[in-house]
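Obj: model holo form, ligand = magnesium ion.
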Amino acid sequence: VIIQDLPGIYSLSPYTLEEVVARTYLVTEKPDAILNIVDGTNIERNLYLTTQLIELGIPVVVAINMMDLVRKRGDKISISKLEKELACPVFEISALKNEGIKEVVAKTVETARSGKVIHAPATFHESVEKAIGAIEKELGSLVDTGLARWYAIKVFERDEKVLETVSLNESQKTAIEKIISDCEKEFDDDSESIITNERYEYISGIISAAVRKAVSEDNMTMSDRIDKIVTNRILGLPIFFCVMFLIYAIAMGGWPISIGTIATGFANDVIFGEWVPGL
Ligand SMILES: Nc1nc2c(ncn2[C@@H]2O[C@H](COP(=O)(O)OP(=O)(O)OP(=O)(O)O)[C@@H](O)[C@H]2O)c(=O)[nH]1
Ligand SMILES: [Mg+2]
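Output (holo structure tokens):
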């Protein structure tokens, strides 16, 4: 078994050297399996990369690391729900405490040896999936079958570095450009942002299904605390009516706190009665 450690990255975009090195390795060497080590204390940000790795069509095993810290914080991560949502094996580990390592390594080796090809699930909005499917068709045998979805998404994003490696003829280029610009018109956004947004939407669905963050009172800002009280399910409406009454009582006459009558009286008698006419 050959193990290759890749740089720590958050995405497979072409913008940093680490990302380019990692993704070039993955698409040219096509490893038998990817072990994606995720920081469990920052799971939302890390799943962005996970979704891209799954698109490569290479079997992915996910290890949620830092579980010691996750437990300490009281956050709850449902492994079975993550497995269901991501359609790949997920393990809890703590590299620091040497927990769960054996299991995840065994599963990764088994996965690598099985030689399976994964068909990445469709996870985006229907129109985006249609565009990606159409680009996959245009790319045809120009790209490796397993990597077809990844290439199609990158071409949709107009990723220059990927486009350099695919030898499209002029008519294919025109056809693909039309597919992209039609979708951009529909979403009123550029293609790269469309994919980013779709990805975040997909991830937030996964997070809300599988992760329960413990709300720590220490981390709450003053405005969070006020929100917690005034938007309380039971106290919310009574508080709202009290505040409305206070505003009414201050503005109108007849209550000890009223300044309404006094202020109008002052304006009429003093400002406009004595000062202004005298000017
Ligand atoms: N509490 C805790 N800390 C951990 C755990 N795993 C790793 N760390 C700490 O996280 C830090 C980074 O660990 P590395 O192994 O360098 O992480 P890496 O992903 O290889 O980092 P890059 O390759 O630079 O992206 C170290 O200080 C580790 O001690 C864990 O399970 N629990
Ligand atoms: Mg490292």
